[in-house]
Amino acid sequence: MRLRRLWRPTPLKRHYDVIIIGGGVHGLATAYYLSRDFGITDVAVLESQYLGFGGSGRNTAIVRANQRTPENVRLYDEGLKLWRVLTDELDFNLMFFNCGSLLLGHSEASVGAFRMAASTHNFMGVHSELLDPRQCAEVIPGLDISDRPAFPIHAGLYHPPGGIVRHDAVVWGLAKGAAAHGVHIHQGCEVRGIDTDRGRVTGVRTSLGDIGCNRLGIMAGGYSSAIAAMLGIELPIHPLTIQAMVTHPLKPFLHHVFSSTAYHVYANQTLKGEIATGAHMDPQVNYTTDATAYYLKHQAEALVDLMPALRGVRFMRIWAGLADMTPDMAPIMEGHLGYDGLFLDAGWGYFGFKSGPVAGKYMAEYMATGERPEILEAFQLKRFLENRYSGETAAVMKYGHWD
Amino acid sequence: MTFRLTCPVCGKRDVYEFTFGGQDRGPRPAQEGLSAEEHFRWVQFRMIPGGWEGGEGGGVREGDRAAPQEEWWYHGQGCGVWFRTTRDPGTNREVEGGGGG
Q: Using CA atoms, how far apart are residues A80 and B37, in angstroms rounded to an integer?
């Protein structure tokens, strides 16, 4: 068998037209679309560790388009449709498993919120439906729909278009596609400072030396607020640690993604048979990826309460990543942020993976043309200064002190 | 790894006994003559430098402010006191001598 590299090492030039900070899904997708759709190939993606080191390789791989507000649903719906397109276009199997997702509500208020959400989705042409507890148990037979659990199931928001995508494959596929169009990918290149001159971004200072640029994109996921801080830019972003874990492999029994608004748990069975499951966030801002026994225990208790058959199943691994939370649970996609040529794609919270390719597509258009695409109007930074928050927090969960 | 915070009343306790109250950005700005934009900037915008050591060759990032920040915490599962401490978001740990003010 002949092994073929997905991308080849390239020399580090001293100047690029466009530099993108962050070799994750968002940065690579932006580079891919810049080179493919706009003929801008003098592009470097700088990654301080290795491609997919951050949130792109740490999420639980769930994709869906059942956000709360029309502006968000529209963006995520287009993003959801891109997985099949990209699998074909990149000639790389992203292993999109269209298994559907079931969000569980545990209160009367959640039933009302689900009704509103399903109405929004249907209005936007996205398939979602409200299920009663019995119907939830038909979709996922292991759920305990009795009154026994601490938070009994009141309703489910069933969303058939959702599913799971192999997150490493997305990173590698996009890197392959971008490199094929001439993008340079530099791993182990840590940005330590940003240079500006008379209100323009002129380059970055990195662990591999200074590199000039005309346009700079900060797309570093949970680390974006630290990068912005290099320029003294304040953002309404809280970087928080979010933990995830997998059990040992089991026979296939869970054929959908499920998540719970009260237990702060989401879970799916991977193609290997493990139950991959994620937790709520640690509350204090930080840039570490510390995992804790506290959440391991919380997760075990929550999963067993929801699905008693999981009692005795063992966790094999635990890890953590960063979620860059905004006060309204919607992202910030901004251009000319304080400096000409400075672009920011951040604040995705824990929705950064599912939104990656579509965010890259529109950030590429923004960076190439200098004009904000209409679909990004709702995600400007200034909404926080005008008290016009996105209504995304009108979903069910109580998120944290920052919202 | 979990870590401990220094409660001024109870001493070092597990962080999960506490509620994070956010970065301490000083007193609320005077309302007189305050624009809506200034108000919302104070409420929601903050700077959270990484301040971590660089990868190869170490080195602190140029342009960084000192990373440790003053924060409010509430000992909800203990004595119920609100207090300030200094913690480094780059390491997630309380800074030596940062306990209880």
A: 35
Count of domains forming chain B:
1
What CA–CA distance (Å, rounded) separates A324 from A54? 12
> CB burial class (10 A; 0-12, 13-18, 19+) of residue A371?
exposed
Q: Which residue has the higher pLDDT, A1 or A105?
A: A105
The label of the residue with tokens 């950005």 reads: B25
Which tokens hold the place of A311?
A: 């009692």
Indicate if the pLDDT at residue A394 is higher than 90: no
State the DSSP code for A235: B
CA distance B55 to chain A (A): 7
- Per-residue pLDDT, averaged over B69-79, amounts to 95
B30 belongs to a structural domain: no
If one compares A18 and B58, the residue with the highest pLDDT of the two is A18
Residue B76 included in any domain = yes
- CATH number, domain of B74, equals 3.30.2270.10
- How many residues are there in chain B? 101
CA-based nearest residue to A24, from A306, A398, A238, A345: A345
Phi-psi region of B52 (alpha: psi -120 to 50; beta: other; left: phi over 0): beta
> Residues A21, A26, A29, CA angle at the centre, nearest 5°?
105
Residues in A lying within 8 Å of B, measured between beta carbons: 48-49, 188, 190, 192-194, 205, 207, 223, 225-226, 228-239, 241, 283-288, 290-294, 327, 384-387, 401-402
Phi, psi of A90, deg, nearest 5:
-85, -5
Confidence of residue A397 (pLDDT cuts 50, 70, 90): low
Name beta bridge partners: A235: B46
Provide the domain limits for residue B72.
1-25+36-49+61-101
The amino acid present at B57, given as its one-letter code, is G
Q: How confident is the model at residue A398 (pLDDT cuts 50, 70, 90)?
A: low
Query: What residue type is A254 in one-letter code?
Result: L
pLDDT, one tens digit per residue, over A184-229 is 999 999 998 999 999 999 999 999 999 999 999 999 999 999 999 9
Q: For residue A348, what are its two tokens?
A: 């995705």
Percent of chain A with pLDDT over 90: 90
pLDDT at A3: 81
Q: Do the Cβ atoms of B46 and A205 come within 8 Å?
A: no
Total Cβ atoms within 10 A of residue B34: 12
Find the residue in B nearest to A290 (Cα).
B1
Domains along chain A? 15-59+167-236+328-394 (3.50.50.60), 100-163+238-325 (3.30.9.10)
Is residue B55 in some structural domain?
A: no
A280 or B34, which is more confident? Answer: B34
Q: How far apart are the two ends of chain A, measured CA to CA in Å?
A: 53
